[in-house]
Each structure stands twice: as structure tokens, then as C-alpha cells.
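User: We ran a pulldown and think these components assemble together. Before we commit to crystallization trials, I'd like a predicted model of the whole complex to look at. Sequences follow.
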Amino acid sequence: SQQGEEDPQALSIQEGENATMNCSYKTSINNLQWYRQNSGRGLVHLILIRSNEREKHSGRLRVTLDTSKKSSSLLITASRAADTASYFCATDSGATNKLIFGTGTLLAVQP
Amino acid sequence: DTEVTQTPKHLVMGMTNKKSLKCEQHMGHRAMYWYKQKAKKPPELMFVYSYEKLSINESVPSRFSPECPNSSLLNLHLHALQPEDSALYLCASSQDGSSGINIQYFGAGTRLSVL
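Assistant: Here's a predicted model for the assembly, 226 residues in total across the polymer chains.
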């Protein structure tokens, strides 16, 4: 399977703490994206990092990419209860319209 | 408007029924997708339409039949489904991807239960 792996599978933290989730993938990529999914809803695109970038920020989100290790991490700072959701990384080889999703991390932020 | 609209939100059908899921976007996107998602799993790609032509079929059983009537609409026709087909069905769209960037916009999904 080409599917990426994410860890941890589940993460529970207190409001105000930082949350870090990791993604490892198997193939060469053009870019890597992170999506959020609230329970039973559609996915929402959060951030995209290109293969020639090492770090990117967007508001409380920080993404890193290490193409030599085929891995990425998503850091959410100063978490809020509203950040409770599943988070998926998705890799794009650029060759087709296909994204390869990771297994996901379920984040619970306790108020 | 960055919305992808899916109808119905919920669907219960028997194994002998025929039903259709509908998806609509007005963002001018030329690629549209159907995904199937089981609980606590990532979305699994089923079909991709690019410029209204089927470009990817991930070996989906023929009881699922996609249709793209025009650039804004995507349907998924369902016939003789099995209970294991019960899942959340997600539609997504993106620009044509020729720029090398494929950010996908998802609908809220149709929760399908097959009895």
C-alpha cells in the first residue's frame, strides 16, 4: 500500500498546550498537504508545503518537511477545544490528480 | 463560493434499491472526486473526473457507477449494494491540477447505510 502512516493514532491534550502529529510517506512527492476533519464531516484543507520547502507557518500551524526521511510534522500551538478533530496528511506526486492520505491522528483538546 | 454541496446528507437503502448521490460545485474546478470513508479510516479514492472525463477508477465494483453530466455536477449511481458498502461518501473538487497543486475542497458527505 502507498498509504502514509501517521502517529500518534490518537492524542489528548489540555487547552493551551501544543499538539504535534507526524506523517511518514513512501514515495517521492511534489508537495504534502494537511487536512482537518471534524467528526462525520468533510475534510478541510489546512496547509500545503512544497517538496523544496522545509518549514511553513500559517497562524497557529507550523509544518515541517524532511524529504530525506520522507516525513512531515504538524504542530498546532496554543490548542483550543475547537481544534478537536482528525488530522490527515496527504501526499501529491504531481503526476496525477491523486492524493495519498495518511492514516490520520485523532486529536482531542480538553477544555 | 468555496462550497461543495452533497445531497442527500443521509441515505438508507436496501440491497435491491437503486439510488443516486449528487455533488455540485461552482468554483470552476475541472477535477472532481468520489471517496469512500469508513469510521476511523482515511478517505479511499474511488473515482476521478478530469474535464468531465473519467480519468481514474480505483478498481471500484460495478455496483457503483459515476457520472459527470457537466463541469459542475458529479453523480454516483448505486445499485445492488452490500451492507459492507455502508460508509461516508465524500465528494471533492480541485482545479485541474496542471499547475502541480492539487488542493481539494470537500463536501460534507452522504452517510449511507445499506440494510
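The first strand of chain A starts at residue 5 and ends at 7. That may be worth checking against your pulldown data before setting up trials.

User: Thanks, that helps.
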